[in-house]
Amino acid sequence: MQVRTKKHHTDIIDLCISGPRSHMEQVIAEIKKHGFVNTSDSIHWRQLFPEFDGQPPYSVALRGARHKEGLTQAELAAIVSIPQAHISLMENGKMEIGKERAKRLAAALNIDYRVFL
Prior knowledge:
Mean pLDDT: 88
Oligomer: single chain
CATH superfamily of one domain: lambda repressor-like DNA-binding domains
CATH class of one domain: Mainly Alpha
Order of helices and strands: HHHHHH
């Protein structure tokens, strides 16, 4: 039996091109006609938030998702049946989350569990 595959949640792609600098403005103008945006002057989010430098991405994601939902660590711990101390360790990058915990946390925080892996 054939089953439909899951469709990607976005149709946006990143495009990286190389060529002579002398043609750069002309090429950028041409691809903008097709809906592309020049992001060459963009910077990585870690440059904007140096306080997160050195912290694993999963810990930043967990803390941010919890704040987005307006939950304290104790409230989240009660919802997902994980000790509050473990939530703190995960948010501080001192404990890995793991797939099963990621799924429980993601369900409580209304996000995809893969952001924690």
